[in-house]
Every structure is written in structure tokens, then in C-alpha cells.
Design a protein that fits this description.
216 residues, mainly alpha, 11 helices, 0% strand, elongated
């Protein structure tokens, strides 16, 4: 696995080297002798541009090494050449990094690009739309927020914590619309997810203080 990661990391330069060697072999021994080097060189360079090095990001992300993740993303010179599912993942990661830096406008731009491309994994697309919905709510655009969060719930959300956040957000939206029965239903769904993170639990406690006193 480590050897494969090294190949991915240096495949562009290895591809150039293979083509350079192929030219030399071609001059002295003919095209067909050099064909395999030409072939390997073209495959290496093409895979660098069309697939990219996103496989290398998993380790640094698990370690929380944000700078290494950024460095790997910076080696993608032409993201529009990436295959569609890979490009979607690329923009999702770029959006998440921007959110970490609280650059919400840039995050929204990247996440919308990712969402427009779709994802081969519905849950990943659901998580993407949930983030867009949360950003829309932060801007006070509840209508757009509701649309994105509904889409996220429909597509599926990969973990119970995020699912609880989605339902709590819908609860807040419907409370604002004074549709209290629907708000209570979404609140029950949020609690049924049994979230464990402090932030989500605090939000549930805060809503619980007054939701039982409202009609509906």
C-alpha cells in the first residue's frame, strides 16, 4: 500500500521520465521496442490529470494534518480535467477546508460545485446538501436552507449525529413558520437518533425547554 501511494505521489514525474526514456530507446532501437515505455508514461500522466492524488488524502485527514491535505490538493493543477466523481470529492474537500477557516462564501461556492456534479455515494451527497442547508440558515435564508436539508434527508445522511442536526434544523425552520406539529415531529426524530456530541445535546436541551409548551 505504501509503495502504491509513492507511485501515486510521483506518477506525473515518473510518467515524464518514462516518455523521455522511450524517446531515447526509440532513437536507438525503434518504436516498438520503446512502445511499453510510451504506454506507461502516457497512462501515468493521464491518471495524474484525470484521477488525481485524492487517495493520498485519507491518511492526513484521519491524522488531522490539514496542511498536508492542502498540499496534496495543490498538486491538482487542472481540477476540471478530473473525472466527475473525483471532481465532486475534490470540491467537497475544498469546501470543508474553507468551512474550517470560516470562509463560508468560498465553502458555499465549492460545495455547490460538488453538489451540481453529484456523487456516486448518495450519503456523501446528502452530507454535502446538509452543509449547504446549514450555511443558508446562517445567512437567514430559511427557504433555501429547508430545500437543501430536505434533499439531504431524502438522499440519506451518513451518521446519526449529522442526521440529528438535520432534524433539529428542520424543527427550527418549522417553529419559525409556526407549524408547530411538524416542528415537534422533527424534534422527536432528532432525539430518536440518540446523538452523543455535546453541541447537539445542548441544542436538544435548549429546544426542549420550550417546545413542550407550544401548541400543536
Amino acid at each position: 500500500m505504501k509503495f502504491y501511494n509513492i507511485l501515486i505521489k510521483y506518477r506525473f514525474w515518473l510518467g515524464l521520465l518514462a516518455i523521455l526514456l522511450a524517446v531515447i530507446v526509440n532513437i536507438y532501437s525503434g518504436f516498438w521496442t520503446a512502445f511499453i515505455l510510451y504506454f506507461l508514461g502516457v497512462i501515468a500522466i493521464a491518471s495524474h490529470f484525470f484521477i488525481g492524488p485524492l487517495r493520498l488524502i485519507q491518511g492526513p485527514m484521519e491524522e488531522g494534518n490539514v496542511e498536508e491535505v492542502k498540499r496534496i490538493l495543490d498538486t491538482i493543477w487542472f481540477p476540471n480535467l478530473l473525472f466527475k466523481p473525483v471532481r465532486s470529492t475534490y470540491y467537497t474537500i475544498k469546501g470543508n477546508l474553507a468551512m474550517m477557516n470560516q470562509d463560508f462564501d468560498t465553502a458555499e461556492k465549492h460545495l455547490k460545485k460538488s453538489s451540481s456534479l453529484g456523487s456516486p455515494v448518495p450519503e456523501a451527497e446528502g452530507a454535502n446538501k446538509l452543509q449547504l442547508g446549514m450555511m443558508a440558515m446562517q445567512k437567514g435564508n430559511l427557504k433555501e436552507g429547508e430545500s437543501y436539508i430536505r434533499a439531504a434527508i431524502r438522499l440519506g445522511i451518513p451518521d446519526k449525529e449529522s442526521e440529528a442536526v438535520a432534524y433539529l434544523s428542520m424543527c427550527q425552520i418549522f417553529m419559525n413558520k409556526r407549524e408547530f406539529r411538524a416542528a415537534k415531529d422533527f424534534f422527536r426524530r432528532a432525539k430518536a437518533c440518540k446523538p452523543k456530541t455535546k453541541q447537539v445535546l445542548d441544542q436538544i436541551k435548549e429546544i426542549e425547554k420550550y417546545i413542550s409548551r407550544i401548541p400543536g
